Amino acid sequence: MTAFRLILMVCCLPVFGRAQDTQQLRHAFAAAVGSEAAAAELCASLEAKKEKSALEWGYLGGGKALAAKFAVNPFTKLRLVTEANRCFDRALSLAPQHTEVHYLRLAMQSQLPSFLGQSDAVDEDKRFLIGSLGSTCREDAVLCNQVTSLLTEHVSCSPSEKEKIARTVK
């Protein structure tokens, strides 16, 4: 019986580790939303990692987007937004169906002025998130709430999209 528990713990350790990493990334990102220093720290810690998961690439993109928010120089802002988009592209090349990365990219790109030409994935991400909302809500209540809030409060959705979101989260 003890050997079975040990095997079970070893097999489940990567899952628990990923959940903890996800929580740490979310916490660091939430802190970075309101703090230039926290945004810089998030970027620095993720850039220092040699091997990054799709989620880490996504949060690096989110961190760069937040750093752009705090930048004063418009050229620096544009450079950071471009770098953020490259990070999101890298993340989605590793895991094209990663809901949290689509959420992070949509959160950033939906706030950009269209004349920058940096928000080309808004419709794609919105469709993806609405289409996967049911499974997201079953698997991760925190992410479900974040996605629902973004879609209903910050992204322009058609009446039929709003209805689908409302039906899904009931």
The radius of gyration is 17 Å
Main sheet specs:
none
Q: Care to count the β-strands? A: 0
Question: Structurally, how many domains make up the residues?
Answer: 1
User: Could you list the spans in which at least 5 consecutive residues all have pLDDT below 50?
Assistant: 1-17
Cα end-to-end separation: 42 Å
Average pLDDT for all residues: 89
- Assign the structural class, choosing from mainly alpha, mainly beta, alpha/beta, alpha+beta, or little secondary structure: mainly alpha
What does this 3D model show about the protein?
The chain has helices spanning about 1-35, 35-45, 55-70, 75-95, 100-110, 120-130, 135-140, 140-155, 160-170. It is mainly alpha-helical. The chain has a single domain, classed as Serine Threonine Protein Phosphatase 5, Tetratricopeptide repeat (Alpha Horseshoe). Helix 3 (about 55-70) runs antiparallel to helix 4 (about 75-95), helix 5 crosses helix 6 (about 120-130) and helix 7 packs antiparallel against helix 8. The longest helix is centred in the first third of the chain and has 32 residues, at about 1-35. The N and C termini lie far apart (about 40 Å).
